[in-house]
Structure formats: structure tokens, C-alpha cells
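BUG: 3D viewer hangs when loading the predicted structure for this chain

Environment: internal workstation, default settings.
Expected: structure renders.
Actual: progress bar stalls at 90%.

Input used:
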Amino acid sequence: MKKIIIFARIICIFLVIVSTRSICSNKGVIYLISSSSAYNENIINKIKNVLEKQDFDVSTKYLNQQISDFGYVNTDKERAKILIQALTDNNVKYLWFIRGGSGAINIFPDLFNNIKNIKNSQEKIIIGFSDVTAIHYFLNTYIGWKSIHGIVAAYNKDLYSNKDQEKINMNNGFQEVVTAIKKGVSYNGLLPMNSQAHSSISGILGGGNLTLIQSFFSTKYEKYLPCQILLLEDTGVTYKQLDRILNQIFQKNKKNFKLQGIIFGQFYSLSGRDEERLMFKTVIKEFARKITIPVYYYPYFGHGKTNNPLILRQKTLIKCHMNNEFCQLTQAGI
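C-alpha cells produced before the viewer hung:
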């Protein structure tokens, strides 16, 4: 009997410690997930170790990689099934994507067909960028959930051992995203690219990777947030290709593409030289000159060395002062 009592006390102490850790950290469990290109499975334990050292609990329940013929983490059907299971799991609060790549657009119809089930589930916060834009787009516009445009779990400063070598998102880590979720963000350095942008604006932030956003143009899935400020970034796009796409957006704006503003992130390569950065900036400036929507340039999110977290479907204020060259973006936390 005495042994049973001692054992019971040990269990109670253990539960109190676990509970206290969870309450004190107030972070919850991070569920790792991937719905796009295949990832290096050897990196998963490193991701877990890094997050656990930062006082997170980590689950790999929704990782199931069986690489498809196209190099995706699984077949379209299986990737959709796993993601829908995660989005409808009421024990899940945070879904952090391992990586982007390609393939998420293929599972959009399955997500669309499960709108009701997902809407009836507890709201989740997904975190990621690049190909994850397709998932952001669905959750922001069709479900009404907020999400984080920010680093993926496999590529960030917390995972890199060689700090001197230039790598994607090398200036951002997990804690910055957590702080953004809790406290919001405030960034100076938005460069107004036309006269309309010098006036302060407010709206709801949405968007992400330009290639993914363009994929929805003229489809039944094309939809925008009310009073949307459109976020755009991309990689591997030449300045001539960007110019062509922006001309398409300019023509759309004449019809029903009504926005509060557009913020352009990084489009030049990771180690882009001055002339490359200037060409992309010039293309954006020429587009801004023609359009009546406020346009801003902020190359500190996207596929570059810096990918500052931004909260999608969140009210966003951009303030510009007459005596300042740059504007300031602010968002409250979730």
C-alpha cells in the first residue's frame, strides 16, 4: 500500500511539472507537417531538438513521406488527406511546415471540398511561406483563419551550423515567429513607390508567393480579402517575367482587382548583386507609376537571407510621415 501511495505521488509530481511547463511556456505543441516537395528526413530530429531546447513540445504525427513521381512528399490524395486530418484535429493549435517547394496547389480542390468540416474545427495557426502560400490562401480567404507568413522549419538560422555562409532565411529563427504571434510586429523600412503610397493606409494583409497567387487568377478559386493589402514575393523569376505578370495585374486592376495596397518583398536572388536588385526595383517602380493603388517595397520577406514574419488576415496599418523616406508597418498579435 505504501509503495502505491509513493508511486501515486510521483505521478502527481510529474503531471504538475508537465502542466506547469506548458502553462509557463504558453506555447503549446508544434505539429510538424509538409504538403509540398519532399524533404530530407534526416533534418527532422534536428528540428525537434532545436524546438525542444526552446521549450516547445513537438509532434510528428502528421509527417508521412512516401515520395511521389513528381518529387512531392506523397501523392496528391494522401497529402490532402493528411492536411485535412491536421486541420480538423481539435488538439492541434500550431502547424509548422517543414518546407515549401511545389505541389500544394494540387490539393486545393480537396481542401475546397472540405470547407464545412474545417470551418467547424478549432482554429489553427499555420506557419510557412513559398508553396505554403496555397494553404494560407485557402485558410485566409475561405475559412477565415489567420496565419503566419514566415520561415519554414527546415530552413532558418536555428537550423544552420555554418553561420558565415549565405543561406535562405539565415537571419530569422523560431522565437521571432512566436513573438510575432504573441505581440504582433512593427517594421520600418517600407519604401513608398508611388505618390499614393505616401498616405497612410490600413487593410487586411493577404498573399505571399506571386507564382501561387497568379495560379488562382481566372479560376473559380480566385478570391480576395475585404480591404486587402496584397503581399507578393518570389524566387527564380526574371525581371522580364515579373514585368509581364505585373502588366497582367495592372489589367486586372481595371476590372475587379480592388486592393488597398501592394507590398513587394524580395525577388532578386539570395546573393543578388546591385544591378540585379536595381532591375527588379525598377520593374516594381514602373508598375507603381502606372497603377493607382499604393505600392510599397520591402525586400525583407521571402526567399532571401531575411524573412521577417507577417500575420496574414490580420489588420495592418502602414503609416507614412512627410519628413520620413520610409513608412512603418504594424500589426497586433493573434
